[in-house]
Amino acid sequence: MLGFTIVLxxxxxxxxxxxxxxxxxxxxxxDRVDVPDDAKAAARQEPETAPPxxxxxxxxxxxxxxxxxxxxxxxxxxAVLVLKIKEADRLHRLRFYxxxxxxxxxxx
Amino acid sequence: xNKLSAWFxxxxxxxxxxxxxxxKPVPLHRHxxxxxxxxxxxxxxxxxxxxGILLAFYYKPTLEQANASVARIIGEVPLGWIxxxxxxxxxxxxxxxxxxxxxxxxxxxxxxxxxxxxxxxxVALMVISLAFxxxxxxxxxxxxxLSATKVGTDIPRAIPVIGGWITRLLRxxxxxxxxxxxxxxxxxxxxxxxxIFLVLALHVYLIQRHGISRxxxxxxxxxKVRTIPFWPNFVFRESVVWLLxxxxxxxxxxxxxxxxxxxxxxxxxxxxxxxxxxxFLFLFQILKIFPAHILFVSGETLAVLLILxxxxxxxxxxxxDNRPLERRxxxxxxxxxxxxxxxxxxxxxxxx
Lengths: 108, 352
What we know:
The structure holds two protein chains of two kinds. By secondary structure, chain A is mainly alpha-helical. Helix content of chain A is about 60%, strand content about 0%. Chain A has four helices and no strands. By secondary structure, chain B is mainly alpha-helical. Chain B is about 70% helix and about 5% strand. In chain B, a hairpin with a 2-residue loop joins strand 3 and strand 4. Chain B is globular, with a radius of gyration of 23 Å. Chain B starts with a helix and ends with a helix. The chains are: A mainly alpha, B mainly alpha. The interface between A and B is large, with 51 and 58 residues.
């Protein structure tokens, strides 16, 4: 019941708080928050930030270096994990995990 | 060290958890590869949570500051552009794997008795994931996201009786305004995370309750199938998959960062090429190809009702195809492939 009331309240919005822009067509509205015109204009300007990505050549090289390092680490870890998988499968085939020693390995 | 682990063990009983995990069998068969999709979703979900929290430190969900704060994240915050790019790309990866996971279950018919509720909770998780994508798309508050949200939130209006109410619920009023932005932000970081955690808990419980599914023939005949323990055998295998997926995600996020459009202007006309995220493209195209009127009914209303009917079919699939396990269900398999082909073709058409 409480959830239903909340949903109803949400769907209602805030009556009368969304003014229609005069001459702007019935469906055009502005935000209900009173914001100075210059602040709105500033918000609508093009962002003065650089596009996403490395800022300079140093950062660009850094990214390629990081990628090389990351993939090397992934390759090493994958190789180690493949060995661990083979070992774990071997122990499973030998029913090691059912033995008292194996149970200790799983439940230390 | 032993004393420390004994101290924790006495309080947390972690041995019981590892013992449970080691006894949990994971079947090995030709469809085992699809088992990895389920847990891979968790990887991307975790990345979403971490990067989302980092972004929330700097993001300001107001009409005046939303776009500027994202621009600040990209341009001024150290590694901010990487965090945002990883957040955006991991959302796409997560939804792609959710689709893959559901399609694999549909085709292998793993939703059949007793896993009907597992399927339904999975579909609910997919809907929540899509809602995350939809609400997150507006947050940068650029011209494209504003227009796409206007179109997206206007679609429910075509539903008879309750459509207008749903649109107002989504927008927080009659139109997309600053209220919509704060509302979408609240959905994105409060309501949807709570919803996903609750449904995820149910989904994981059901998987534990009924176990990981096996191929139909083997399950129906109760044939002895080769299994491996979840811990450590399956966890090691899963770790390899996670490592590779993480590597691919970071590489793509670094090489193809997410761009930010110019700040949204509520008075400006809709820009050219409004397009939703890739996972909504096929729905968008369905709406586009319907004529304005079919007989005396609005084409948009018919299209939306058709989509809702499709979604209902998808959700209730285990109740529709509730046959015994030994039935292969060729029609269901064919339907799944036709749907997949249709969705891909419609998405491509939308891009042309």
